């Protein structure tokens, strides 16, 4: 039970870390002292993506899942958790075009 909770906690932390890497620059505009947290986080994010590395948080999450008797997954965190949300099964190019057009219309108006 504790291993499962630890794995779920790592998923939450991992997601928050990715969001901080992506959008932390906006927080730095308001809270300048965060630059010293954001620069290393953003640097790590770039290195992981450029060199196709697996983040240690993914490795630790899978260790906790295995210890909890749960199924571990191959690949990375984004492929496992994020991409199925952005590109669900059955999403056709026509649907993507329609959704993109709606998004464009909402932002233009």
Label this structure with key terms:
109 residues
Task: Describe the protein in words.
This is DUF2784 domain-containing protein. Keywords: Membrane, Transmembrane, Transmembrane helix. It comes from Pseudomonas prosekii. The chain crosses the membrane at residues 12-29, 35-55. Pfam families: DUF2784 (PF10861). With 109 residues, the chain is mainly alpha-helical. The protein has one domain (2-108). The protein has five helices and no strands. The protein has helices spanning 2-30, 35-50, 56-67, 77-86, 93-108. α1 packs antiparallel against α3 (56-67). The longest helix is centred in the first third of the chain and has 29 residues, at 2-30. The termini are far apart. The mean pLDDT is 90.
Please count the beta strands (DSSP E, at least 2 residues each).
Answer: 0
Provide the gyration radius in Å.
17 Å
**Molecular shape:** globular
The first-to-last residue Cα distance is 50 Å
Oligomer: single chain
Strand-and-helix sequence, N→C?
A: HHHHH
The largest pleated sheet is described as:
none
Low-confidence stretches: none
How much helix is in the residues?
A: over 70%
Figure out the total of helices.
5
User: Which class do the helix and strand fractions yield?
Assistant: mainly alpha
Beta-strand content estimate: under 5%
Q: What is the average of the pLDDT values?
A: 90
How many separate domains?
A: 1
